[in-house]
Structure formats: C-alpha cells, structure tokens
Design goal:
Blueprint: E1 9-11, H1 12-39, E2 51-56, E3 59-64, E4 78-97, E5 103-113, E6 125-132, H2 138-149
Length: 151
C-alpha cells in the first residue's frame, strides 16, 4: 500500500439514498413499459381503439383488441439488498428544526467502508435493506376512482 492509498468511505445514508433511487428508477421503467404496452391498442392519429371484426350469428361486431389479449405486467413488491460493510467514522451534523423554533437537531452519519472486505472478516456487519411497495393511499385511490368515473 502506498502512503496516500486510503479506502473510500461512504455515508450510510447516501448508500440508502442511492439504493432507493435505483429502485425508484426501476419502478418508473416498469410503469413506462406498461404505458407503452397499452398504447399499441389505440390509433395514434385519432385515439380510437384498434378493433377486430367478429361475426356472431347474424351480427358483426368491432371488438377492441385490448379486450382480446391479457395484460399481465411486472411489478416490484419486495426488493431485498444484502451487503457487507465495515463501520468507519461517525460524522455528526446539526441543523435547525423548523418545527421546534429552530432548536438544534443533531444527527450522525455512519461512514461505511465497502472495499476489501472478505467473507471471513469478523469486524464487518451484514446489512440487509428491504424495500416494499406500499398500497395506494386512500385519498389517491378516491381521486383515481373519481377520475375513472369520468371515462
């Protein structure tokens, strides 16, 4: 090791933010794919549904293609991330608490080392982070229902 070779340390809160950002990005990608999957069932010019003529007895019907295919999609319910890290320094910070007359609110960031860790090391901790998709809040569900009634 050289004189200036230093292991990089990461704030645990930054690790969590980065992981959450990655999961949110993946969720947005899944939602965009769902929208793209639905858009192929409508005409781009006038917004009318694409249909298939179907004869039933003496009647002829134009059935929307959307009603004739399944619409399964991927969804993230639980995401579990596991890694090993060594606790380095603890960096203390203070900020003004606007809810308590700007009283000082302190918090600490754990500085984590994540490089050069072996499975047999005994001074590391196993970190398991679980992200879970939550149900839609009732207020948002009600707004969505009201909007769907207008369709």
């Amino acid at each position: 090791m050289g004189l200036f070779n230093k292991k990089q340390k990461y704030a645990f809160s930054d690790i969590l933010k980065g992981l959450q950002y990655a999961i949110n990005s993946a969720q947005e990608m899944l939602q965009a794919q769902q929208v793209q999957g639905l858009l192929k069932f409508w005409s781009k010019n006038d917004g009318n549904p694409l249909t298939q003529k179907v004869k039933i007895g003496g009647r002829e019907l134009d059935v929307p293609l959307m009603a004739l295919v399944s619409h399964s999609h991927l969804e993230m319910d639980d995401v579990e991330i596991k890694f090993k890290a060594r606790v380095g320094d603890i960096a203390s910070h203070a900020l003004a608490d606007k809810l308590q007359n700007n009283a000082s609110l302190s918090h600490a960031d754990l500085q984590m080392e994540m490089e050069g860790i072996k499975a047999t090391d005994d001074d590391v901790m196993d970190v398991t982070i679980r992200f879970k998709a939550k149900d839609t809040p009732e207020g948002v569900a009600r707004l969505t229902d009201e909007y769907n009634k207008q369709i």
